[in-house]
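Figure 2 data, in text form.
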Amino acid sequence: MVGLFCLATGRLVRFALESWKAHEIPLARQLIGWMEPGEIVLADRGFCGWGLIALLQRKGVDVVMRAHQARKLKGRRMTWARPPRAETWTPSLWAELPAEIVMRIVRFRVEVRGFRTQEVVLVTTLFDDKTYPDEALAALYRRRWAAELYFRDIKTTLGLDVLRCQTPELVRKEVWLQAIAYNLVRALMLEAAWTHGVELERLSFKGTVDSLRQWTPLFAPSMFAFKRAREELLRVIAADPVPLRPNRSEPRARKRRPKPYQMLTRPRHEMVVSASRALK
């Protein structure tokens, strides 16, 4: 799953689904139609491919991406010639792209304790050094981690890490429902931030979901009661901002250990617990 998020609001603009064997770049090409000229695409090095960047440039969309680790870059500018066509690209579309693209190279070091990367190399189509200095692009790329947190909200907080449906059609419906629910929660957070003058990034997605679940029974059929309950819900969401945690580490780790039970490999009426697990 490849998602296109709005960095300002956290809204999931569009997403693309495919088999786990598919690469991310062909999925990202499906999202180009949802981008507008003048926008900036912020992505990691998995999307730093010549064809995708050329397509975005042709539409007037700028990019800020981390350079792939296999590409050795020197200097401040790079002329990237068109490579051989991959199988995922049609000959007609590949022929429409330019023979070469020019990229700006930005380097900066990460010296925050606990961060694993020491040097980061970015490639971008924002060539104006005065309007977009290196420090601003480094700060912008640092915010790319927000996309990982958005996916965590969808998978962990909303429970999409384990799909319950069995067929591809129903799986797509399940993902769509979770995406709609995610955007509705984000809209509620945005309204609470605007109404009470709180920074949107200081509001907790998990806290908003918990408050919404607690307040749902209080939404009476009466329009007046519904309006008052909704206003109070917005106040509750805005009244509990998360603390400022600059340079906070977000390790990919499990909080809970798996239980020492054997796997349910048969129907329940046929399942027999082994003697070694009977007393646990």
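Caption note: The chain is about 35% helix and 15% strand.
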